[in-house]
Amino acid sequence: MRRKTRIGALLTAFLLGVGTLGVCGSEAFAASESSEVSAPDISEEVTLVMYLIGDRPVDNDEVFAKINEKLKAEINATIDVKFMSWGEYEQKYPLIFASGEDWDIIYTADWCFYNAQATKQGFYEITKEALETYAPMTAETIYPEAWEQAKVNGQVFMLPMNYKEITSYVYMVRGDLMDKYNIESVASLDEAEAYMDAIVANEPTLIPLDVGSDYDKLFVFDRMWEKANWESEEKVSGIGTWQAIGSVSELDDEAVVKGNYDQAEFGGVVERLKDWKDRGFWSKNAVVNTQNNTESFQAGKSALALCNANTAKSVYAQLTTEHPEWDIRVFDAQDGVPPVLNSYLANGMSIFSKSKNPERALMALDYLRSDVEINNLFCYGIEGKHWEASGDHALVSLPDSANYAYDGNCNWGVRNDASWRVVEGGIPGLEELNNVWKENARSRRFQTFVFDDSNVKNEIAAITEIFNTDYKLLGLGFTDDPKNDITKLKEKMTAAGAETVYAEMQKQAQEFLSANVE
Amino acid sequence: MKKTRHPFLHDLKENRVKWLMILPAAIVVILMCYIPMGGIVLAFKEFNYHDGIFGSPWVGLKNFEYFFQSGKAWTTTRNTILYNIAFLCVNTLLQITCAILLSELAGKYFKRITQSIMFLPYFISWVVVGAFIYNMFNYEFGAVNSFLRALGMEPLDVYSNKAAWPVILIIVSAFKNVGYGTVMYLASIVGIDGEMFEAADLDGASMWQKIRYITLPCIRPTVVLLFLMAMGTIMKGDFQMFWQVTGNNPMVLDVTDVIDTYVTRSLLNLQEFGMTSAAGLYQSGLSFILVLIANHAVKKVEPDYALF
C-alpha cells in the first residue's frame, strides 16, 4: 500500500512539472509578442508557410518559385504553400489552429471561419499602424469600406480582397445529351426539371444532379428558396449565423426574425425538393456523398452541375479540352433572382496569431496583393506560359493553363481591381450574362450585419446540430411527410432555444438598422 | 543495515527485471492517458487559441448545458450502451463458439489456415469496411440492389432505413472482431490440462459433455476478465466503426449516433473545444462509474476474478 502512494506522489510531482512547463512556455510567448514596434527588420531570412484551400495545381511550384525569387529580393522571405482540399477543409481548417503546427498565412472569408477564428483569437490583429509600416501599398489602396467590414468587435484580422464581386449560379449541362433528348435550354428550375426527367428516363447509368456532399447539400434548396422568396410579397432573406436558419422580411422595419420553417414559402419548397428526390434527380443515398456535384459531373457520373460562375469558368476550360464530345453548355441558374453583391469579406487573407513572423507575413501579403507582377503570377500563372496579356484589363489563356487555371489557385483573397484581368473567350455568352447580373445585383439588407452570439452560445451549438442533420435532410427532400417533419423540426428548434436566439438577433438587427439609417 | 533502505528503491533493485518489463506499458499509459488528462480543464473553459488550454478563461459548468439542451445526451448515451452490450454478447458468444470448434477440429493445417483467415478482417481499416458497405448497399449501383433488380425484385433503400443499421453494425463488428477474440479463447483452451480430457475420455464422456464440464468452466476466468475489460469501454463507441460504416448519415442518426461520433461531429461543426470536451468528460465519468459497478458485481459473485 505504502509503495503505491509513493508512486502516486511521484506521478503527481511529474504531472505538476509538466503543467508548470506549459505555463512558462505560454508566458514567454506572450512577452516576446508584445515587443513588436520596431522598423521593418528583414536581415534574417524567413520561410512563410501559407495555407490555401483546394488541390495543388500542377504548376504551383513553378509559379511560386518565380514569386519567391522576387519576394526574396524585396523582403528576404519566401513562401511555402500548403493545401487543404475542398473535401476536408471544414474539418482541417479549425484543427490547424489548435494543432500547434507552425504556419503563418491562411485564406479566410466570412463563409470560411473568419468570425469563428477571429473571436477565438486565432488571427493576428492587423492594426492601422502595422498596415502603414509593413504594408504601405495596401494601406494606400485598400477600400475604406472593406477595412470597415473586416472589423470584429472593432479589430481587424483580415486583409479582404480589393475586388467588387457578385456571386451568381449557373448550370453546366451536357450538350450531347440535350441534343439527344431535344432539350433547348436549361436556364430555370422548370427547364432543369424537364432535362433531369429525360435523364432519369433514358440514362440509367447517370445520376442527373449528384448533390449531397457537405459542400452542396443545400444548393438546390437555396435556388428554390431564393426564387420563392424573391417572388413573394415579403422578400424574406437570411440573417445572422447561417446555421441558425433565421430569416427576416426585408420590408419589415421591426426586423422580426423567424426560423425559415415558420416562413410562408418553406413548406412549398420542401414539397418540391421531396418530389425531385423521389423522382431520382439525386441519389437515394445523397446524404453520404463525399464528392460534390461538380466533381461528379467532371468524372462523368452525372448529367448536370450546379455551381457558381467562377467555378464554372475553370471547369469549363478543363472539360472542353478533356471531353470535347460532351459539348458542355452553361446556363444562367439565377432564374430571375438578382445575384448577391458580395461583401469584401467573401475572400481575404489572414495571419495566424501564433505566427513567428507576423510582420514579414504582412509584408508578403502586401506584395501578393499590390505588386502587379506577383499578383498576376499568383492569380493567373506565368505570363507567356499560362496566359498572354490582351490590353490592360484582359488576358488570353494559353493551353498550359490546364496546369495553372485562371483565378483558380485560391488566390481570391488577393484579387485586386487595380491589376485585374478578365479572360477573353472562355464560356460563350458568359460576358452578356455577367452584364445582366451586374445590372441586377443587389446587397441584401442584412448582408453586413454580424451577429454577436456570445449571449446564446449554447443555443447556437444545439441549433447547429439540428441544422446539420434534420434541416439539411429537408433541404435535400429526404422526408416522407413534409408537413409533419417541418412541425417536428420546429419543435426541436424551440427545445434547443431558437426563440431566444431569434429574439437576440432581432434586438441586434434593430440596432444595426438604426445605426445604418443615419 | 539493509532494513533502513528505501522500500521502493529496494524493490526496484530486487525485481528490476519485472520493473523493466512493465516500463514500456507504463510509459505508454503515462504519455497517452495521464498527461492528456490535463486537457479535462478544457471542459470548464472558454477556449481561445491565444491563451491556450491553461490560460483561457473559466466558465464553470456552462459548457455542459448544450449537450443536454440539444436533446442528444439521452439518445447518444442509450445508443452507446446498447450497442456495446450487443457487441459484447454477440462477439463473446461467437468467439467462444469458434474457439471451441477450432480446438475440436482435427487437421493441424486446416486449423491454422482457418484461424489465420478469421483473423484477417481485424487488420482491415474501417475506412475500407465503410467502402464495402457503401458499395454493397448504395441504392443506385450497389451490389445488393443490382442483384435484386436482376431478379426482378424491388431494390432496398438501406441508407434511410433505421431498422437496418443496428443489424449491419452488429454484423460488421463481429466480422472484424471475432477472429481476434477467438485466438485469445483458443489460447486459454490450449492451456487446459490435457489429462482432464484423457480422464474424461476414459470415463466415456461425450464431446458435448467434455465441452460442458471441462472446457467452459476452465475458460471462465478468461471470459470474466475480458468481460470486465470490455465494461471499461462500454461508454466508448468504436468511433472509427460508427463514423466510417454509417458515413455519418444524418438519416439514421437516431439509431447510430454514439457519444464519440456526436462529440467529433459537433467539434467539427462548432469549433467549440470546451463544449465538446464537456461531452467527453461526461462520457468518461459515466464510464468510470460503470467500471466500479461491474467490478463490484463480479466481486460479489466471484471475488477472485475482480480487477481490484
Summed up:
With 518 residues, chain A is an alpha+beta fold.
Key features of this structure:
heterodimer; A: 518 residues; alpha+beta; D-Maltodextrin-Binding Protein, domain 2; 5-stranded mixed beta sheet; 4-stranded mixed beta sheet; 19 helices; 19 strands; disordered N terminus; B: 308 residues; mainly alpha; 15 helices; 71% helix; flat
How is this structure best described in words?
The complex is a heterodimer of chains A (518) and B (308). With 518 residues, chain A is α+β, with helices and mostly antiparallel strands. Chain A has a domain at 2-164 and 344-422: Periplasmic binding protein-like II (D-Maltodextrin-Binding Protein, domain 2, 3-Layer(aba) Sandwich). Chain A has 19 helices and 19 strands. In chain A, the strands form 6 sheets. A 5-stranded mixed beta sheet of chain A has the order 2-1-3-16-6. In chain A, strands 9-13-8-14 form a 4-stranded mixed beta sheet. In chain A, strands 10-11-12 form a 3-stranded antiparallel beta sheet. In chain A, strand 11 and strand 12 (258-259) form a beta hairpin. The radius of gyration of chain A is 25 Å and the shape is globular. Chain B has helices spanning 7-14, 16-34, 52-55, 62-69, 72-104, 108-119, 126-137, 143-150, 164-190, 194-202, 207-232, 239-246, 253-256, 259-270, 273-301. Classes of the chains: A alpha+beta (518), B mainly alpha (308). At the A-B interface, helix 1, helix 3, helix 4 and helix 17 of A face helix 1, helix 3, helix 4 and helix 14 of B.
